[in-house]
Fold:
Amino acid sequence: MARAGLGRARTGLGWRGAAASSALMLAAVLTGVPAADAAQGGFGAPRGSSTATGSGAAKGDGRGAAGGATAACGKATGPFGVSGTQVFGVDGKAFVSYGLTVAGLQGPDWAGSVMDDLEEITAAADDWCANTVRLQLDQDDLLGPRGTGFDQSYLAAIETEVSLAESEHLVVVLNDETNYAPAAVAAYQLGPTPATKTFWKDLTKVYGYDPQVIFDLFNEPRMYSFGMSAAQEWRLWRDGGRYEGVNYPFGMAELAAYVRNTLGATNLFWIEGPDWSASFAGMVQAGALLNVSGVVYAVHHPAGQPDPASWNADFGYLVNTGVAPVVDGEWTNYEPTPTSQAPVGGSCWPDAPTMVPEFLQYLATHGIGLDAYTLQAGYLLESTNPAVPNTINARTWTCQPGQEAQPGQGAGAEIMSWFQQQNG
Structure:
């Protein structure tokens, strides 16, 4: 999801030699500066920090709340497959994703965010006990808004981040984002386009047989309007059609079949639902289940009231009735910033002190994983240190902009602790 109002975290933490080496290689691609020169500080310092110097660089306060628990954190190994409502990895071991979204490559200013992304990836593995990172990519950044170009430096940035994540033994989810499309083409990118197929054709050449990579085929399809019936909504999502004067030549069914059957990708798929993937209610009744293998349905911020009955209706029923596995592919709870008009929809629950722990328990009970958004101040972090999560204070929590007695609260500490408990 495109987020506004909270800037990217600017950190002064170092990272391991693998990240530094990857960053220097990327520096040469992006700037033409030799890696040896970049190592002298001309490129690669995290914004607002000093240059990291390799594997001996300091890691801030060390381990943060994780307390050095990395060795006890579970890691997952693919290839991954689906059986019933579960995902299994190598040797039939069940895989539930506990992850974090890394969002630096999703917009037009991606080149300035790579270094932060590398720190976030390392923090996900070292401090958050994650087994997964989800990289939000942008088809316009790779192909241009017309879908006819190709930016080799952008692919190099993707490869750098994937390489670091895999060196940390993380599963990597690659997500195609179009929220940042230029105004001239934004209306045509609310759902998958021919450029979406080209995007996955290019990435399948690199990662289509990588057992550690999951394809999240399209971020938050938005082909929806108020007054549309549930049947119309699901038909548009599945098969394409016309929406507000725009013709979508195909939907998620054809996109998934193209990547699986035509391109031959063997990866696990995360499939997001219509209307920002807020709910899968009515999908089965509408006959909108996708007929491809290896599918996990990825809800984001659930649409209904935060309670078990709504969660069952929005996505839990898929597990309860044996239809398919589910993951919450992007979720968070945070107070709005004092200067904002409102939090992003579904991202601030008035009763979060009570319902956030209940939501996490619901996911655990149903074997549903969670990908949290994101290691930036105000979302999951207290300030700029990716190892230190923010917290919820029940006495001062509010979802009313301008009424924050204790600004910057969020569910970071709850999520970090839950990851450690579930993935330990």
